[in-house]
């Protein structure tokens, strides 16, 4: 098998590329470097600089490298930006996927893995979110992920491509400091950013109907997430693999924002109290995955805890930002 990993120079993509290469798969990466960092990839993984919207480049790449499977992570991922620029998000995330699937079908590639997100669920009022929980995304970003899943499944059926959609919950941590998330869009780097600026962490709302009043999330270590991709890739390459699978990738354990901020204080040694600000519109009180289907279908369960996520993320933050 040779796998093309789109978004392979990104935070999650580089983890996936490395773990798959370490497991003996042939891997090449494609990334337009809009957010990617080339040196996240070891030199033995070729990086093609270009966009998933460039059908000709995809065609050439598939032929030159005899690609037999695709892991599609390339996407724009900022919820707020997607609200301000919905057409751009649909063009990149849905248009890019359609172009890619067309090239995949034309090249006769039969395995496809898609990066989806818990954002497809929106704000469901359930204790554990299962894959049968109705989807109601609350942002154009979430809509592009849900539309993407529909497109992946429809193309799979039409062209005989076996597909897996992984719905990631809140990704954190780093397998090595140089692989850390360099963006400041998720809660862990956001708190690090505040502390590095000598400012108190912010908590948006402490009057939610949760045990300590702050929002509860399901955090997943990026190294566990990368292992889930390897498990999904192995499922796709098993003899006779057909059809589609859509599965949550989380730990099935809720951690409140206040618990997370306290843990970050312990790890960084900066225990200044958080400031509580008003709720942000659209934040669900609780979003925790049922991890049962992933265990059953992929034989995969997360192994790393939240402290390991925060510690490894902090090592990465200090490498990139000091502190
Ligand atoms: N980080 C999270 O918490 C999270 C949660 C759920 C889902 N996801 C999804 O996981 C995937 C990877 O996210 P990430 O956190 O690693 O983000 P990231 O921004 O670090 O990685 C995305 C990569 O894709 C590249 N890219 C973007 N558009 C492209 C295009 N049209 N063609 C080629 N390359 C392109 C970027 O340069 C970047 O390297 C995305 O699809 C994202 O929506 C992430």
TrEMBL record:
Reactions the enzyme catalyzes: UDP-alpha-D-glucose = UDP-alpha-D-galactose
EC number: 5.1.3.2
Superkingdom: Bacteria
Pathway: Carbohydrate metabolism; galactose metabolism
Coiled-coil intervals, chain numbering: none
Keyword annotations: Carbohydrate metabolism, Isomerase, NAD
Domain NAD-dependent epimerase/dehydratase: 3-250
Cofactor or coenzyme needed: NAD(+)
One GO MF term attached to the UniProt entry: UDP-glucose 4-epimerase activity
Family designation: Belongs to the NAD(P)-dependent epimerase/dehydratase family.
Full protein name: UDP-glucose 4-epimerase
Organism of origin: Streptomyces flaveus
Taxonomic classification: Bacteria, Bacillati, Actinomycetota, Actinomycetes, Kitasatosporales
